[in-house]
Amino acid sequence: MIPKTLSFVICITFLVGCASAPKEKTSLEIQAIQSREYESTKRTSFNATVSVFQDLGFTVVSADYDTGFISTKSPTKARDVFLGGNEMKHSKATAFVEEIKSGKSRIRINFVHETLESNEGTEKNQDFADLDPALYEQTFSKIQESIFIRKANSSSGQ
Question: What residue ranges define each of the domains in the chain, with the CATH number in brackets?
Answer without folding.
Answer: 28-155 (3.30.310)
